[in-house]
Amino acid sequence: MAAAGPTVPPPILRDPVPGVGRFALHVVYDLALWLAVLVASPWWIARTLVDPVFRTMVSQRLGFGLPAAPPERRGKRVVVHGVSVGEVKAASSIVARLAEERPDLEVVISTTTATGAEVARRTYPHLTVVRFPFDFAFIVRRFLRRVAPAAVVLIELEVWPNFLRAANRSGVPIAVANGRITERSFPRYLRFRKLMPQFQRISLFCVQDEVYAARFEELSNDRDRILVTGNVKADSLPSGRLAIDPELARHLGGADGQPVLVAGSTHDPEERLVVEAWRAKAPDARLVLVPRHPERVPAICRELAELGAPAQRLTVLRAGAETPDPRRPVIVDTIGELEQVYALADLVFVGGSLIPHGGHNMLEPAAQERPVLYGPHVGNFLHEAALLEGAGAALRLADPADLAEALADLFADEAARDRMARAGLEAVRGVQGATARTVRALQDRCLPGTGA
Questions:
Q1: Taking the domain 246-430, which CATH number applies?
Q2: What is the reported pLDDT for 197?
């Protein structure tokens, strides 16, 4: 891993880009936000009235019900922010390490999405969980006053102009942990960097590799604030096979000797594509589908019924309304159980990859010693895919027809599955250790009561 630069710059505790011109840009930005709200207000109002989950999200991101820091905790809190489920789970090793090394600090988990909030409350039941504020200046200022953080840690990246500016002006250093900028996003950041220079407002970038470091350097023009610390997601993963949950095994597992295929984090129309490949080439396997967005499950059930492959639902099986049928697809229509479901698998397909979505984290099943398949669209996880493919732990498929052939070949070759599984576990173990480097950098450069 790369070492720090020749100097260690201090945390940014005041506005690094003051002036009339920057003030005018923020005024224009605020006006654009208000205009967007005005144009979209009929849709927002209608959805808020009919969707209680959406209504709760809006209320919380407006700052209603935001718990204030008690007097003894003001300036002793660290906000760790993850946009959604993946980032919230990736933060777990950092949160655990901070609790171990800095028990004097209170970690507050921030997230944006409803699924992220639900997973955060399950993952961190002992911590305060809040919603990241909408980026209106007055809402952001209220958030910082109420939560009163000593520092904010953004998992991967989240650059909202008013939030970063208000944090600078409030003397709250911002750090990026597990930082990355995808190849698709990088040109957009370059295009707008002169209009709203946000990267100069961040005190520390702990990034996954040198490719990302080069991108952050071009945007921030400050290599001294960038450290290559590795991918903390590898540290947040189990190291080896998890113990199988008996209740999940009863509902989702196969019959005696029946192999299990888990398709995780799928998107429309991947459920249909997986079912078609399964029926064509691996009909003897137990098929478990875990959609990325459970709210899609009713539509998925209708589609599969039309295909002649009616599915069961985990919540229905748990309620005792049906008996598990290993010959039928079963859909996990809950949140936060994918890791335990992977423990049941003999083979895993990671979704978001047969369509141009960018894929999902294929290290999760590999860390559990499971052979992994995914489609060609893995732009959001190129480095993880390269790691597993280089180790012989995963196969990148060209299309749904390729998926069908891979299912047939691997279910017929248990030795090949075992080789892939062992290689995946070793590959993940080989890249662990990023959490210790990241927390050390936070201690040195951003957190109170250190040499920062």
A1: 3.40.50.2000
A2: 66
